[in-house]
Amino acid sequence: MSSLSSTIEHGWELSRKTVPGPILLLGAPGVGKGTQAKELVKIWDIPQISTGDLLRANVAQGTELGKIAKQTMDSGNLVPDSLVNEMVAVRLKQPDTVNGFILDGFPRTLGQAGWLDGRLSAQPETLPVVAVSIQVDYNQLLRRITGRRNCPVCQTIYNIYMKPPAMVGICDVEGAALVQRADDTEEAFTERMRVYAAQTAPVIEHYRGLGRFAEVDGDRAIDVVAAGIIAAVERLRKE
């Protein structure tokens, strides 16, 4: 085992003894928040809470909140913060959140951050949110997003810049023509980045001002990035 691998493994062993509390993962589209959330779920045995997943689950299960959300979306309107907040509130009551949870996609706005902080502060036994932003260079993100190609048969994901198929445009496994998602274009990515920056900048400054914010380099191997997030969380919890 390399020195780096040994250091990471040692850090993970220590982290398993830590109560992580609520963790907000921030990062632009394509930085790997979902991948890192799954790593942290395995290490800390705490749930990942994604508002997108909550919304889909409530709609699919036909809950009262899901019915309201579906009616709103069917009318072509955005689901309001108040409804999203209520879905999160219901999820946080579940027992698997007692040692912490990983927030992905929430709070997305300053209003949601204020609501969450207020709710958690009303529960003295619950630690406050710490926010960790995964940083990746803009041009690297652009290559990650615009270079993505999917096999429509086996769903294997390639990247024409970093993980190209053996034959241009053809899946190595199925021999099917690869496709590019409509929102993986440079124009769509630029708009997503604009929206992300506009919405998230106030959230970052909010947690920075509270002394509960850190950044990690996301342009590294998955386990190295995970180790960086763990170290950041443990440092913030001690401050």
Q: Care to describe what's here?
A:
Residues 148-183 form the Adenylate kinase active site lid domain. ATP binds at residues 30-35, 148, 157-158, 220. It holds the Pfam family ADK_lid. AMP binds at residues 51, 56, 77-79, 105-108, 112, 181, 192. Belongs to the adenylate kinase family. With 239 residues, the chain is an alpha/beta fold. It has a domain at 3-47 and 94-137 and 201-238: P-loop containing nucleotide triphosphate hydrolases (Rossmann fold), CATH 3.40.50. It is 51% helix and 13% strand. The chain is built from 9 helices and 7 strands, in the order αβαβαααβαβαββαβα. The protein has helices spanning 3-15, 33-44, 51-61, 64-74, 81-92, 110-121, 138-146, 186-209, 222-238, and strands at 21-26, 48-50, 100-104, 130-135, 148-150, 157-159, 213-217. Strands 2-3-1-4-7 form a 5-stranded parallel β-sheet, sandwiched between helices. A two-stranded antiparallel ribbon has the order 5-6. A hairpin with a 6-residue loop joins strand 5 and strand 6 (157-159). It starts with a helix and ends with a helix. The relative contact order is 0.17. Residues 1-8 have low confidence and may be disordered.
